[in-house]
Amino acid sequence: MKKSSLIPQTIIIDKDTNHIIKKPGHYIFEIIKPNIKVDIFSALQAKGDEEKELNVVIHHKAPKTTAQTTLKAVGFDQSTLIMKAKILIDPGCQETESFLTERVLLLSKDAHAIAIPDLEILTDDVKCSHAASVTQIPEEQIFYMTSRGISKKTAENMIVEGFLKMEE
Q: So where are the chain's domains?
């Protein structure tokens, strides 16, 4: 795997916020004050022979902070999706909670994805987890929808739309 050449964009978080990542890139979220809650969400699509890369670091620099990070992507055709995300918790940042989810849906046997979640916890008394999945639409879902008169293309579009929707 080649080394990323993305220039990081640092986002300082000093109040409760929701942040939506709208395009590929390298993002560093620095949570710098105690008792801050941040929700980070991204929904990307890659088509044709595009390669899209998303790198995210959630850096907890203060205690008693909370982050919920959900990164989603859909790959079509011969596209490649690379998603790397990391939770970093500094020493002295007890009572931090941070959760990271990476989900990729591939709509072609020729589409590729890499999803790499990571944790670096340098203190104790925290709650953290990460998860990643790369999958295709189960044939049973398509069969169910087409058996009710929905075309295969429309069924796929509906599933993709629901998959990329931000959870509330």
A: 8-136, 138-168
